[in-house]
Amino acid sequence: MKPVCLVIGAGAGIGGTVGKKFASEGYHAVLCRRSDEEGLQKLVDDIKADGGDATGYLLNAVDEGALEERIEKVEAEIGPIQVVLFNLGAQIGNRALGDTSYKMFELGWRMATFGLYRVAQTVIPKMEARGGGTILVTSATAAVRGNAGQHSHAAAMGGRRMLCQSLNAEFAPKNIHVAHILIDGAVDAPDTLGKMVGAENFAKLRETRGAEDGLLMPEHMAETYYHVAHQHRSSWTHELDLRSYSDLAWWNHK
Amino acid sequence: MKPVCLVIGAGAGIGGTVGKKFASEGYHAVLCRRSDEEGLQKLVDDIKADGGDATGYLLNAVDEGALEERIEKVEAEIGPIQVVLFNLGAQIGNRALGDTSYKMFELGWRMATFGLYRVAQTVIPKMEARGGGTILVTSATAAVRGNAGQHSHAAAMGGRRMLCQSLNAEFAPKNIHVAHILIDGAVDAPDTLGKMVGAENFAKLRETRGAEDGLLMPEHMAETYYHVAHQHRSSWTHELDLRSYSDLAWWNHK
Amino acid sequence: MKPVCLVIGAGAGIGGTVGKKFASEGYHAVLCRRSDEEGLQKLVDDIKADGGDATGYLLNAVDEGALEERIEKVEAEIGPIQVVLFNLGAQIGNRALGDTSYKMFELGWRMATFGLYRVAQTVIPKMEARGGGTILVTSATAAVRGNAGQHSHAAAMGGRRMLCQSLNAEFAPKNIHVAHILIDGAVDAPDTLGKMVGAENFAKLRETRGAEDGLLMPEHMAETYYHVAHQHRSSWTHELDLRSYSDLAWWNHK
Amino acid sequence: MKPVCLVIGAGAGIGGTVGKKFASEGYHAVLCRRSDEEGLQKLVDDIKADGGDATGYLLNAVDEGALEERIEKVEAEIGPIQVVLFNLGAQIGNRALGDTSYKMFELGWRMATFGLYRVAQTVIPKMEARGGGTILVTSATAAVRGNAGQHSHAAAMGGRRMLCQSLNAEFAPKNIHVAHILIDGAVDAPDTLGKMVGAENFAKLRETRGAEDGLLMPEHMAETYYHVAHQHRSSWTHELDLRSYSDLAWWNHK
């Protein structure tokens, strides 16, 4: 039986592409996303066409019990989850405090912070019982600094980063590798960046910045995700950043 | 009319003592805490006995609308809030992930992160309309690193720190001073440390470490809170740490 | 005998102004700077005209033995040094690596890092023998992030910040307070900013940004320096930032 | 002609092992170290026995011109340097300030900070002219926090980290990848850890902690060094940490 790589947040950008990479290396990729059944099916079909194994589910991560049930069923029906990629973002664009509703603020936390906690609560006991596992967490610059207009996003991601550290502190000695992967730049991802800037602008961005490797490319990011997940336990990385060579690091000013 | 200093989380440690300091300098101290009406009344009486002005309220910060209503009433009945001290903690002691219930994890966020967001949403528009104000936030080491057993606390405080940064980024240019005060050590506070370690151990701690200034003393901390709140706007501090001279900084190992 | 406040780097900006503040509070201000005897004399005269005590010395901090001898003589001839303000900068403007000579790079270190080490080596044993003391270190954003063009400055200040932490770790328990004060913005200082941008631009900056408190004002910064130096040892600050309310924090992007 | 991987600091631990890894992947490994000609020759012979290309040089990095000349000669005689691994440490064990001589403090800087600056000055123009290159810098926890007894080491490594950031800010857009690899734990390295703790203790450490993967293993670390050096430029890592699964991260306390 193949080991399972469970992707929470499997759009056509990082999530789906990392899933493909793991599938191509011998994992059964279990891809979960909130909507776009067609897009999900395409990811699954692509993996299968390449000779890999994949299963897809639509899942609303903020629904009570949805993450927990999915994990239980995957374990029961597909196999032991060796790797989780927690790839849910909570970016809602720049919004002044006055335009950030209570509901938005809470939703950010429910997706980005509480969602990870729930996944950890459900899957870690299983990993611990099996002697190990890996949890990769896609993170954003908002986890390390709060910009104006990022009240919901920064609060959610900052909480998530500290949760990753506390999970790592408790579970690394139990052979569970938690990695916090800080994406510091725009990703060439139609389902997130594409929707945020609109189809036309996205096409332009790809032609200009993208053509010069100025957008983070999911297929290349996936190499690093895979590498981190397979580091020998004598040499684990807990945190790393990823950005395009041509982009300004978050700590730099022009 | 005196300016108001509103303290959310006014126990006998930092909250009440900072309230006293502000009252002694000419503020009307409005002290809010969840329980112990007697203790609250004592704080108010002490301030009045020293010739200051104070009002106390019991208030459960996680109740829907409780923070918002209190702020509205204070503004209507007592006066404009010049300074808020947001002093709610979310420390629940060291708890393994398996002992950290969904409810606990959410409660940590509701108190430490969402509570500050709600206060900011309610009071900042009033401050902005008046041309300025100050929000002091008591924080903890868990805001900058997640230890084992701190899943709920670290997630809540890490989110709070990023929220402080995003509030500062949006509102400092509007003359609203947000300060994140990182308390990196044990505070000589009967309502928090006292309850956590028990009365007997707390008495011992005071006799040993406390006698050598090895516990953070609220009356001395209050001097720094007051100083930060009164910095000239050409020279504001957003973040500072406080610890006893004899304590190891969080980043050091023995 | 008055306690001594020794200022290394006493120009007309932070150094001289903090010296004045300490003198006005009962310290003998010992002001050291590299050049401009006239400017130095003016600072000393101003302090004396206000009824304070001050002595000035020209001193090239990178000369072998210069810092050490000055400290010894001050201790012998004026009195015990209670507070040191180490205020030497190493900013040489933005320079590409190709324009940063070996000599410049080394000079940055000699002033900003090695200078502090030498002061610490000389004065700390005296402070320790007397039971305590205070070392305030003016720092810059370059201590926490390296921008392009800041090779010399960032390397020097980054080293200095880590040195402050190691000094604090060894000597705080011996009642020696080391504080790292991160100045994150342009200071209204004719001897540094003034020289960097030129007299005319500096005059304009003062009329525009300065008039709106958009430059850090040394006389207000001095209040915070003084406050930190007089915190009770149960509640010491090791690191804090200072910037104008209207300035972007270093971690924020527009 | 094979691309060259130049290792500055090629002992039997990280430096030599990363050199071997690159040689096994098609690089000509140029190994430089200060002493132990025999050990150096053994590394070179091992690589050649595995079918790889390697050349070794004894070189004292603090000698004037030594790094510069070596780089020029390698470029002239062996080939273009595609990757530099700057692997010089400056750990001198825990030393109180009183036991840290001026000479030691300066030597730390000369090796760990100035050495990297000199290498960058010499090799970066060549890389820039060729359109790219990679500089991997082995770093230590002392680069991000200063412990007691680490005055020289922390100052040197803190300066180095900021230098890495300023180099990255200037040269990443020119396709030169600078990576700061933070080693947060004891490495299974006879030439460094072995010498620090003594042969007998080192043997014991290997049998106990090492046997449980509790020491960082150079051959596994080398995988990550190699991976980072070969990331696609749309997805570069500037900073990452490495530690054993069973070790406490530097930010955690027990």
What does this structure look like?
Four copies of one chain form a homotetramer. With 254 residues, the first copy, chain A, is of the alpha/beta class. The first copy, chain A, has one domain: NAD(P)-binding Rossmann-like Domain (Rossmann fold). Helix content of chain A is 44%, strand content 17%. Chain A has helices at 14-24, 37-49, 66-77, 102-130, 151-171, 193-197, 199-207, 218-229; strands at 4-8, 28-33, 53-58, 81-86, 133-140, 176-183, 239-242. Chain A has a seven-stranded parallel β-sheet with strand order 3-2-1-4-5-6-7, with helices on both faces. The longest helix of chain A has 29 residues, at 102-130. Chain A is globular.
Q: Portion of residues in helices of chain A?
A: 40-55%
Give the overall shape of chain A, derived from the CA principal axes: globular
Q: What is the tally of helical segments of chain A?
A: 8
Q: For this entry, what is the oligomeric state of its chains?
A: homotetramer
Radius of gyration of chain A: 17 Å
How many E strands of chain A? 7
The CATH class label of chain A is Alpha Beta
Work out the strand percent of chain A.
Answer: 15-25%
What is the total number of structural domains of chain A? 1
Average residue-wise pLDDT of chain A: 96
- Give the strand order, joined by hyphens, for the main sheet of chain A: 3-2-1-4-5-6-7
- Annotated CATH architecture of chain A: 3-Layer(aba) Sandwich
* CATH fold-level name of chain A: Rossmann fold
